[in-house]
Amino acid sequence: MISNNFALFTVKIFTELIGDILYFPLWWYTRGFLGVLESQFNFLKNREKGLALGVWIKNIFKPMFGQNDWQGVLISIIMRIVQIIFRSIVMVFWLSLSVFVILFWLLMPLIALYQIIFQIFIL
Prior knowledge:
Blueprint: H1 2-29, H2 31-51, H3 53-58, H4 70-121
Helix pairs in contact: 1-2, 2-4
């Protein structure tokens, strides 16, 4: 009885292992990829909140510190434009980092497969 159960469970384990190995590429490029996209979207949304880029753009023509004279309005607009440019550059950096992570996710199994084949056949 013990050897029969051992053989049965061994076959079950190997069947599930082979099924998981065959399911891995499908998961990687469907559900896994959607998870990476969602996490990168949330990352970019949090970076935008941290930079408050939308707030700066929305208030570009409002005077800072309640100075309603033309000098105060002009200085406020110039300072906000400088801030928007700087914060946009930082946001482009975070966006490019997110695109790199997504591309890395897509290419990683192909790179790993290439390395495996290279190690087996070249060396």
